[in-house]
Structure formats: structure tokens, C-alpha cells
Amino acid sequence: MKERLHLDELNLNQEFFVPSVGAEPMKYSALIQGIYLAHEYGEFHASQPARFAGRYEYGRDQMIKDLGDDVHPLLHMPYTEQQIVVPLLRSMRDQLQYSGNIAHVLRLAGNFHDLGENKHPDFKKNRVGDPSWGTKLPGDERKEAKIRDEIYGDVFDFIDDKQIQAVEDILGDEEKASEPAQIFEIAERLGYYVTGKNAGKLALAALEASEKQDYRIDRLRALAFNVTNRHIEFLRENEAIGFIHDILTDAEPVQKAIDANFSYTSEHKAQKSVVA
Q1: What is the pLDDT of the chain when averaged over all its residues?
Q2: What is the largest CA-CA distance in the chain?
């Protein structure tokens, strides 16, 4: 039987991990912003449209300026690890136990979870892109896994196979049957909600300042309404987790204002039922 470790015995503040037996420790932050970005695949990934571009983009550079690394096609991954996964795990340390070094594996999953959205020509047969939550077709997850596998082999071959397989056991668990996969789903959906909340803050500030209702504000409003309402009930079911409770409490006035003040044309009303 594997040794069970309380999360508070694992150092979530550490910057380094050992990628393979006998290897020198390396920084988590170097994985995407250093090694991947320096590779042709990472450079191409960084040039792709902003996240949510399919329905909400109003200019790539402006969107990234407004919403930060969270909507950057590449920097979203280390953002997820540092700003969502690590504080989420820290807040769950008294509620759950983990087998082995699962906190480390979840941090790797945060850094690698969108590698499969790379649209480089080498991946033409398996390209999926950045579909909205809940809209992936059967087989899309497997296509993304194939792209991740190629990137692991070409870019991250210095990480031992056991660690990569542990990451894939989380990312490839479509049924969310394992505890680590369930935790990562919480992290992903919390990240979506935070994006929507931040878009709402920007749109509401513009509304209060009586700014002209332009396309940028229109898209921020739609993103805020659709994305927060797509994920909030799931998060409320998990509000016993302190980090989620704190975010929802902080967002409550914004959420009420989003729902109360954002009037929609018939076109926008039709969007309410579309998964975001």
C-alpha cells in the first residue's frame, strides 16, 4: 500500500522539482515560460489567438492587456498552476489526503493541460484548438492527448515517464473518476469563473463610467455573463473549500451586478443558453 501523506507535509511553496532520478532540480516556472517557449512548438503556441477568442475576442492584444496571462494561449498554463492549482491545494490540505507526490503531479498538470491545443502544422491531423467548456466532440480529448504526447517526447523528454503518465492519468480521465482528476476539474472550472468575474469587473467599471457601449464592452459583458453562470453552481457545490468560498464571497457583488445590470439584445439572449 502506498504511503498516505497529508497535504501539509508537502511543500507547495517549493519552486523546484526533480524531473528524473539523478537529474538536477529545475523550476516549475521554467517549464512553459522557458523550455517550451524556446522551442518551435511553444513559440507557435504563444502566437495563437487569445483564449475565448472563438466567441468573445475583440482584438487579441487588447484582450490580453485587459485580462492578463489568464487568456494568453501559452501563459495561461503556468498561471493556472500558480494562481489556481497551488492555492486550491493549499486550502484543501485539511480535507483530503493524497497518495505519494500527487501535489507535484497536479502542478505539472496545471502547466501542461492545454498543450493539446497547439495548432502547429505538425499536429494537423489532431488539431482541436480551444473549444468552449463542454463543447468538445467525442475523440477531441484523445486528439489532444496525442498532441501532448508528441510535445512531451520532443520538448519534455527529460521528465521521466512515470511523472508524465501520472499527469496523463489526470488529464485523460474524461469521467473524472479519480480524486486527482476531480480536483483538477475543480481547478479548471474555478479558473473559468475567475476569468468571467474579471471580465465582469471591467465591463461594470465601463458601465459606471458611462463609457460608450462599443464592441469591446459588449464582448466583456457576454463573456462575464455566460462564463460565470456556466460554472457558478458547480463551484457553490464545492464552496466548503476555503479558496473557492473566498473567491465566491469576493465575487458576490460583481456576480449580482453582472446578472442585474447586463441587459441583452435578442442576439445576446440567444447566447445565454450556449455553453461557455
Answers
A1: 87
A2: 63
4: helix, strand or coil: strand
Eight-state DSSP code of residue 125 = G
Whose CA is closest to 17, among 153, 108, 140?
108
Please count the other Cβ atoms lying within 10 Å of the Cβ belonging to residue 151. 23
Q: What residue has cell string 487568456? A: 71
Judge whether 109 and 12 are in contact, CB under 8 Å: no
Q: How many Å apart are CA 193 and CA 188, to the nearest integer? A: 9
DSSP state for residue 116 in the 8-state scheme? G
DSSP, collapsed to helix, strand or coil, labels residue 137 as: coil
CA distance 51 to 185: 18
Cβ contact 210:60 at 8 Å: no
d(CA 143, CA 156): 19
pLDDT digits (tens, 9 = 90+) for 146-166: 999 999 999 999 999 999 999
Q: Which residues contact 251 (CB under 8 A, 6 or more apart)?
A: 193, 197, 228
Summarised one tens digit per residue, pLDDT across range 35-89 is 999 999 999 999 999 999 988 999 999 999 999 999 999 999 999 999 999 999 9
